[in-house]
Amino acid sequence: MWFFARDPVRDFPFELSPEPPEGGPPGPWVLHRGRKKATGSPVSIFVYDVKPGAEEQTQVAKAAFKRLKTLRHPNILAYIDGLETDKCLHVVTEAVTPLRIYLKARAEAGGLKELELSWGLHQIVKALSFLVNDCSLIHNNVCMAAVFVDRAGEWKLGGLDYMFSAQGNGGGPPLKGVPELEQYDPPELADGSGRAVREKWSADMWRLGCLIWEVFNGPLPRAAALRNPGKIPKSLVPHYCELVGANPKLRPNPARFLQNCRAPGGFMNNRFVETNLFLEEIQIKEPAEKQKFFQELSKSLDSFPEDFCRHKVLPQLLTAFEFGNAGAVVLTPLFKVGKFLSTEEYQQKIIPVVVKMFSSTDRAMRIRLLQQMEQFIQYLDEPTVNTQIFPHVVHGFLDTNPAIREQTVKSMLLLAPKLNEANLNVELMKHFARLQAKDEQGPIRCNTTVCLGKIGSYLSASTRHRVLTSAFSRATKDPFAPSRVAGVLGFAATHNLYSMSDCAHKILPVLCGLTVDPEKSVRDQAFKAIRSFLSKLESVSEDPTQLAEVEKDVHAASSPGMGGAAASWAGWAVTGVSSLTSKLIRAHPTAAPAETNVPQRPMPEGLPAPAPTTVPATPTTSGHWEIQEEDKDTEEDSSATDRWDDEDWGSLEQEAESVLAQQDDWSTGGQASRAGQTSNPGHKSPESDWSSWEAEGSWEQGWQEPSPLEPPPEGTRLASEYNWGGPEPSDKGDPFAALSARREAGAQPKLDSWGDDNWEGLETESRQAKAELARKKREERRREMEAKRAEKKAAKGPMKLGTRKLD
């Protein structure tokens, strides 16, 4: 029947590559590249064609087929499938390259490091130890031709054609009949004198010595060349000499040879070998050992081979996260290995893990993801960001840990270009409004203003018109001086997004108020911004035809190209190397005294320290928006910040080190806990209710104009008119120092809106008067209640113990 006439080679699930065969081992086998028909995964196929009159070679090939199929060890060539017919033998193994070809290719690319060679030889010796000590088998063919290398750089022992049992079962060693292989036989086999009693491993260890010589010096010309170690490392020479000694009895067992080379100062005693040995046993290691290993792994990856990192370290990292509960410690080495991957590999292997990590409730993992987002953001597509990542990231805005909130704000700079209309213009603006107005940490309010200025170009035209002016105006009234600087620079960075009418009626009045600010850095930036806006208005006044050109971006759609210009005026590094928070706090150590308990963050090794500066850089754009460099006074003032690294200030990121271990569930109770926190004394929270954000789910009410406040009754004194026990002004005080008390007491922004107009309703005096009046009423009410209680107590008289007064 036709069924029995089918060709088994054609039905074999693997096919040979059309490429010419590689230089295989000497003998009957020919090595071909191949692939699996179903999946296309690469394999290696050893092919032996049965020839008439070569029965002895056929038996050797069939014996090798059987041995390779039954032996399983990590350091022996891995058998996948096979085919045996009357005409041929096919043995399918993992994709490998002969060691001789591998060494030649690496030599052309710069050569192998001793680390790689030490681990490769370690694997071959370990395979020999398994055969001799565990299986009582003699390999009888250890040489360069019997060693193969997989895609991870792992050395595999093959060439099992001439293997025989050490116990004498099945007869003696088979005859090779191949001169290229017989040159590696030990001298005691060549002369046949049997001069000394030898161990079962003696011949294989001699051949191992020949292999070591060839690895470092090239092909072995003759046996006498073994006397000269050549390029063999000095730490390996003593152990090599034991292998090629004339007395076979003195040649060490493979296990003892490994032990000697792993001794302190030995050739195989290095970080690369230790890392590989740990990875081989990682499944049985304790969780604490795994944590320590992954923490130290990142430092060593730079010296490890690229193929090893991609094909051996990366799978272990993914497995450790998926099944081993390794947590956040795998992130740093994972992203470091990811640099070696192509875009397609990154999308397939790392992005699914990153998406899953964002849904984790582990705070340590969340903050590390946010800190290292710059390394993987380019591989995320917009649907993934909006549906699987952003919904989890926004929980960080409500977190009780300031480090989480700060990193969440910074991450928006990277996520904003990929957010859709609803997430960017509605959800994100809602959280930014809350942070800028209500957060008790001044640096976080400052960073929120900075981030808004950077992503302003991505907002829709209607959102820009409603949000930017109000948000930056609010920032200029913040009691934290760097926040006021950020508000001024926010106007500067987004100058092309305002109409001439807004510049004249909304922005300039706000900036003019800052010209008498208690802080000189705020006044300096305000004067520069005023000059720039006035220059812009003057140019349009001189030539009205320029109006359309100047206002071309006002009603335009989002313009991502402007993001680069915004990046020049204020910058904290997303990676956390130097943050605007740290610089501004150190430059203004008295701006928010209640926040001085933030721990200092150590500067990572190998990275340049940030330049000390009191304010962020000024924007540099085209047209009439050329802002001058810092003037002489600013340069003189900057000398006071030269020692900012010595101050006990730092980015809020470092608070995570002491808090994350105790606060595991970041997503539960975040907003409820924040609501009950005590506000910063220097940043009083008004009594306005922000619950409408969550209750109504509408952001439009958050940007409405503030209602004008009623004028205080006649005769009411302002809070600034009282002597609050502040320090006396010095003889050389700033002429604006008298305004400091009023600024600190009355500059707190209203929390329930980013209003657009009606600046008179937000004036400091009105709010101070209202607050002072409410305080007086409470004091009077308390005194009345105390007087009534005292009166009542005096009228009734003291009560006797044990009795009850009856009416």
UniProtKB/TrEMBL annotation:
Q: Where is the composition biased (Acidic residues)?
A: 628-646, 754-763
Q: What Pfam families does the record tag this protein with?
A: Pkinase
Where is there biased composition of kind Polar residues?
Answer: 660-682
User: SUPFAM superfamilies of this UniProt entry?
Assistant: ARM repeat, Protein kinase-like (PK-like)
Composition bias of kind Pro residues appears in 18-28, 601-613
What PROSITE patterns does the entry give? Answer: PROTEIN_KINASE_DOM
Cited InterPro entries:
ARM-like, ARM-type_fold, CIK-Related_Protein, Kinase-like_dom_sf, Prot_kinase_dom
Q: Where is the composition biased (Basic and acidic residues)?
A: 764-774, 781-794
Spans annotated as Disordered: 14-33, 590-646, 658-807
The role this protein plays is: Regulates COPI-mediated retrograde protein traffic at the interface between the Golgi apparatus and the endoplasmic reticulum. Involved in the maintenance of the Golgi apparatus morphology.
Under the heading PANTHER family, the entry gives:
N-TERMINAL KINASE-LIKE PROTEIN, SCY1-RELATED S/T PROTEIN KINASE-LIKE
**Sequence similarity:** Belongs to the protein kinase superfamily.
Q: What is this protein called?
A: N-terminal kinase-like protein
Please report the organism this UniProt entry assigns to the protein.
Vicugna pacos
